[in-house]
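During the no-cost extension, the postdoctoral fellow (Dr. R.K.) reprocessed legacy sequence entries with the updated structure-token encoder. One reprocessed record is reproduced below for audit purposes.
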Amino acid sequence: MRSFLLTALAAALYSCAPAPTTADALLGRWNMIGVKIYEEDVAPQLNPAGDRWLDFAADGTFSSGSGELRENGGTYTYRPETGAVSLDSDAGVGDDSNWTVTFRGDTLLMRGVGTERQENSEVILVR
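Re-encoded structure tokens follow.
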């Protein structure tokens, strides 16, 4: 009986904890583990050291880089209902990009939106 009460109490406390929202799921640092363009793995060329990252902050800013070096940043918008992410890069208009994101556990899949090449590009990141 005692273990049942402890289990019931633990379940009740767990169910009262706020669940993270989809918008919150994007926040934080993501480490790049794969890049595909037209289904070809191009990560060895674009991320040879395997240390590239992308960081989304709650204030609507993002930064990206490799290792300890921040190489780019800017602002982003995220629409959880559609999975649309727009990156407005400080590097200029030519570096802006649009994506559709999908979450699979601790994996973030980003598929490009726009030109044919962009729509056949996918970035795979993990926490």
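Strands lie at 28-37, 40-41, 52-56, 61-66, 69-79, 84-89, 97-104, 107-113, 121-126. The longest strand covers residues 69-79. The remaining legacy entries will be reprocessed before the final report is submitted.
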